[in-house]
Amino acid sequence: MTTTLETVTSADGTLIAFERTGEGTPVILVGGAFNDRTTVAGLATTLAPDCTAIAYDRRGRGDSGAGAVYSVEREVEDLAAVIDHVGGSAAVFGHSSGAVLALEAAARGVPMTRLAVYEPPYIVDDSRPKPASDLFDRVRALIADGDRDDAAELFLTEAAATPAEVVKGMRTDPFWAWFTGLAHTLPYDIALCGPGGALPAGRLAKITAPTLVMDGGESDAWLRAAARAVAETVPGARHVTVEGQDHGVLQQPDALRGLLTEFLR
Fold first, then answer.
1. Fewest beta carbons within 10 Å, which of 18, 23, 39, 120?
2. Stated pTM of the model
3. 3-state class of 140 per DSSP?
4. Hey, which bits of 37-180 come out as E strands?
5. pLDDT in tens, 227-259
6. Rg of the chain in Å (alpha carbons)
């Protein structure tokens, strides 16, 4: 199956790289923290027989530029630029903080035919601690000091609520280099989710695109609660649990194929 690499210029002049796979209705795939276009490539291949899957590098990742100054508005403009480039309107799928970005874009009027999100990491109950208000600054300071290891660990333990002993084991794995390689983008994901990861109910209530909200049957309780809260907030949204899956569902893209091809086409 043919995949082509292209770029589009965002509103602030930043080049955003993306790959197209397949033919048919465009579906934009938006990854979350520690993700670039390669981590959604498996899902792109899974969906491509039924659509044109667009996997893109969010700013600062892969082959995309970083821009001079980060803001959530710039990331929304990046997604809007990709959508405009592939036809002016498209279906969108977002995972984790990529789901938050997709929801923010939809709430701000970026044209989407349909929107599917998997476990946007809002914090809507007391099943986990809320991140401290200075998490963005602390992660950014570690990155500025060149301490990518501790920046990644801090994000995982405080933003993602990963147990410290689990992160300690992760740091000894060769794959840890992937996490540290993308550590400079972690403040972007913290900014997207907002102070304390609070659900922006007022903004989400403005979404008009038909919306599917998914969670995994094996996911942490706080992520499942967030998915339900989003589905209850976005007008007309549908909530579905993908049994047997957790937050790492992108590693099992076939688990999403039926739901997404039925909903997004």
1. 23
2. 0.97
3. helix
4. 52-56, 90-95, 112-118
5. 999 999 999 999 999 999 999 999 999 999 999
6. 17
Q: Domain ends where: 169, 191, 213? A: 191
Backbone angles phi, psi at 51, to 5 degrees: -165, 180
Residue with token string 């992937």 = 178
CB atoms within 10 A of CB 198: 12
The answer to whether 22 touches 261, Cβ cutoff 8 Å, is no
Specify the number of domains making up the chain: 2
Residues whose CB is less than 8 angstroms from the CB of residue 10 and which lie 6 or more positions away in sequence, other chains included: 16, 59, 67, 74, 77, 78, 81
| Residue 22 backbone class (left: φ over 0; alpha: ψ -120 to 50; beta: rest) | left
DSSP 185-224: GHHHHHHHH-GGG---HHHHTT--S-EEEEEETTS-HHHH
Q: What phi-psi label fits residue 44: left (phi over 0), alpha (psi between -120 and 50 degrees) or beta?
A: alpha
Tell whether 99 and 53 lie within a shared domain: yes
Same domain flag for 120 and 141 = no
User: Can you give the residue range of the structural domain that contains 179?
Assistant: 135-191
- 1-18 b/e with 16+ CB inside 10 Å = b? eeeeeebbebebebbbbb
